[in-house]
Structure formats: C-alpha cells, structure tokens
C-alpha cells in the first residue's frame, strides 16, 4: 500500500465557486502540497496543508535574485473519475529548470505521488464543464534570507490548485490576434529560455502589455540574435500548416519544450499528417502567405490547449490566416487532443493517469 502523505486538516472547507462562471487562475482550492529543502538534510516534510498565505523572509533569495521555477498542468473530470494528463513530463521538466538555476532536484516519483494525493483530497473542486479543468501549479523558490548572489541553502515547493475555465475567456477555439515582436526578445541560446523560470515571464510583460494595448492577444517572439526566426508565443509553442504539412520551430535551447507541443507532434503523425520540426523565418512565412500556402496557424500550451491564430501582425504587414477562422487541421488536432484528455477517445499512448481514491 502507498504511504499516505501527512494531511493537516482545515477547520472548515471553503465555498466553491459557481462553475458556470469560472475564469483562469483566480480561485484556489482548500489544500496545497508543501515540501521543504534544507542544505545538508535534502527535501523533507512533504505534506498537504490548508491553502493559506505563507511567511517568507524579506531577504529571501527568490525575491531578490529570482531563483524560482514553476510548472503548469491540468486535471479533468470525466465519468466521475479525475484524470491527470502526462504529469511525469512536467516533473521531468521541473528538474531541468531547477538544474539550470542551480536549485536542488526533486524525486519525480515522490512528487507525482504527492500530487495524486493532493488532487484526491481536493477532488470535489475539479470542474466538469466543457473546457473546464483543475489547473495545477507547482512552484519552487529559494527561501534563504541572506543577501548576496549565491544559490540559496533553503527552498520550498508548493503545488496549488485552481478550478479554471478557458484561458482566453469564453470559447477556447476563438482565433487569436498575435503581434510579432520586433523590438524585445524573450530568450537567447545559452540563457534560460528552455527552462520554466519565473524571470522569463517578468521579462515578457512589457512587450505583452504593448501588444495588448494595440488590441492583440499575445506576442510571437523571434530569436534573440537576428530577430528573424520564429520561436514561440507568450505561453504557447507555435505551429504552422504550410501546404498541408504541420511545421513547428525546432527546439534550439531558447524555446520552452512544451508538453502539448510534444503531444500534438505525436497526434499529428498518428492522424497521418506530415510533420516537420525546423527553423522557420518570419520572411518565409510571408512568402508562403503571399502564395496562399500558409493555411493554418495555431498555438499549443497546457493553459490555452490548441489555440487557432487568426491574425499575425509584423511591423506594418499583416497576415489574416484562413479568413480568421479555425482551420481543419487545427480543429482535428483539438478534437483528438481534448477527446483523449477528457476520456471521450481511446488513449493508446497511456497519457491519462487516473487519480486513485486514497483511504484516509
Ligand atoms: C513560454 C511557454 N512556451 C510554451 C508553453 C507550452 O508548454 P506546455 O505545452 O508544456 O504547457 C508554455 C506554457 O507552459 C510557456 O510558458
């Protein structure tokens, strides 16, 4: 029998939100997972505790020097069961991120067991509506209260849970408007672009806000050296359908290796599409567009799922993709991906993991 992770009970449970009006990431469940690291002792005190504010030193290394990494995944409810989707991939990636910031690795199996037990305790919070899920946010941050740029001696991991609706609000297949960023860059090779580190997102906010002010949903980043090659969107990897072929930028060290990207590449092959991972320049995209060969564009990410792009603006040039409508291949990938996730379709790759009912 699996060891039970210690549970510190709440005095009373919180009121659950109205499921018909769920937004993204605003409401949190009753409990969170907590794990601590102390130099010399390693990771210790894995427990499920009430979701509540935490105390942190004003000198904590994460606050000053940004030693903080995170993950994002989802749990779904289908036919009464709660299911996680490829969670082991997220814990593999969190270790890649931790290593890049000189933070201590965590036992992936232990973390997955802790997550399953946390989600079991909070299973009544998993929403069941179309496009809804329990968003899962693991975060690890330095807690040592000492100034001076050096790796912290102490860390904390938390996993918090948020019942959520669609990322862009309303219809998850609403085609988005994307601004191709030509001034700022997100990441460079040799930097931290391939890791899910907090600072990457802080560095993206100014460009994102500028794009929002111009009426765009997100920014498409170009490479950090020549600003010529397409990398990824704010929180999604990017795909193009060119002459019927599914094309995405190859992982070059500055792009986040998305788990949805990996899943969609596998699904596209299964569905019989030709798939290509390679360098894609913005000029090449315009050339295909002029010839009518850029048939579809979509982003992939845990939060946004598979999100069609209806418009791409680069400097003073604009591409309207597929008349601003969701394309056939985008739709087919979306239907298959969400079908497997929710349990409506078979899962030949064993991507779904049913959360057990633990006896407490
Ligand atoms: C910068 C960035 N790129 C891509 C992705 C997509 O990754 P995944 O499919 O693992 O959610 C995300 C979201 O996590 C992201 O933040």
Automatic annotation (TrEMBL):
GO terms, biological process: isoleucine biosynthetic process; L-leucine biosynthetic process; L-valine biosynthetic process
One MF annotation (Gene Ontology) recorded for this entry: L-leucine-2-oxoglutarate transaminase activity
Biological pathway: Amino-acid biosynthesis; L-leucine biosynthesis; L-leucine from 3-methyl-2-oxobutanoate: step 4/4; Amino-acid biosynthesis; L-valine biosynthesis; L-valine from pyruvate: step 4/4; Amino-acid biosynthesis; L-isoleucine biosynthesis; L-isoleucine from 2-oxobutanoate: step 4/4
The protein's required cofactors: pyridoxal 5'-phosphate
Top-level division of the source organism's lineage: Bacteria
UniProt keyword terms in alphabetical order: Amino-acid biosynthesis, Aminotransferase, Branched-chain amino acid biosynthesis, Pyridoxal phosphate, Transferase
Class in the EC hierarchy, top level: transferase
CDD domains: BCAT_beta_family
Residue positions, PTM N6-(pyridoxal phosphate)lysine: 196
InterPro entries: Aminotrans_IV, Aminotrans_IV_CS, Aminotransferase-like, B_amino_transII, BCAT-like_C, BCAT-like_N, BCAT_family
EC number: 2.6.1.42
One matching Pfam family: Aminotran_4
Catalysis performed (reactions): L-leucine + 2-oxoglutarate = 4-methyl-2-oxopentanoate + L-glutamate; L-valine + 2-oxoglutarate = 3-methyl-2-oxobutanoate + L-glutamate; L-isoleucine + 2-oxoglutarate = (S)-3-methyl-2-oxopentanoate + L-glutamate
Annotated function: Acts on leucine, isoleucine and valine.
Family the UniProt entry places it in: Belongs to the class-IV pyridoxal-phosphate-dependent aminotransferase family.
Protein name: Branched-chain-amino-acid aminotransferase
Natural source organism: Staphylococcus rostri
């Amino acid at each position: 029998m699996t060891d039970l992770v210690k549970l510190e009970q709440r005095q009373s449970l919180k009121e659950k939100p109205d499921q018909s009006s769920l937004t993204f990431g605003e409401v949190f469940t009753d409990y969170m997972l907590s794990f601590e690291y102390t130099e010399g002792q390693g990771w210790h005190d894995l427990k499920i505790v009430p979701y509540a504010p935490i105390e942190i030193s004003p000198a904590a290394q994460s606050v000053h020097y940004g030693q903080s990494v995170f993950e994002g995944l989802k749990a779904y409810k289908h036919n009464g069961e709660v299911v996680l989707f490829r969670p082991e991939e997220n814990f593999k990636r969190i270790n890649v991120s931790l290593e890049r910031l000189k933070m201590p690795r965590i036992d992936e199996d232990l973390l997955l067991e802790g997550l399953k037990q946390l989600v079991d305790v909070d299973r009544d919070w998993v929403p069941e509506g179309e496009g809804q899920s329990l968003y899962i946010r693991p975060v690890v941050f330095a807690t040592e209260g000492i100034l001076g740029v050096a790796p912290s001696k102490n860390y904390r991991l938390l996993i918090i849970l948020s019942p959520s609706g669609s990322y862009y609000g309303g219809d998850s297949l609403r085609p988005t408007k994307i601004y191709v960023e030509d001034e700022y860059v997100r990441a460079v090779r040799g930097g931290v672009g391939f890791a899910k580190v907090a600072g990457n997102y802080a560095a993206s906010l100014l460009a994102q806000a500028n794009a929002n002010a111009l009426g765009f949903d997100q920014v498409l980043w170009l490479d950090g050296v020549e600003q010529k090659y397409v990398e990824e969107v704010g929180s999604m990897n990017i795909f193009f359908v060119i002459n019927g072929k599914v094309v995405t930028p190859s992982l070059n060290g500055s792009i986040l290796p998305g788990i949805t990207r990996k899943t969609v590449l596998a699904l596209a092959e299964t569905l019989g599409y030709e798939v290509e991972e390679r360098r894609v320049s913005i000029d090449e995209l315009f050339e295909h567009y002029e010839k009518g060969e850029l048939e579809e564009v979509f982003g992939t990410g845990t939060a946004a799922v598979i999100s069609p792009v209806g418009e791409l603006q680069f400097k003073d040039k604009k591409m309207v993709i597929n008349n601003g409508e969701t394309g056939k291949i985008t739709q087919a990938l979306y239907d298959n991906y969400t079908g497997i996730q929710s349990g409506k379709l078979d899962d030949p790759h064993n991507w779904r993991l049913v959360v057990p009912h633990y006896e407490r």
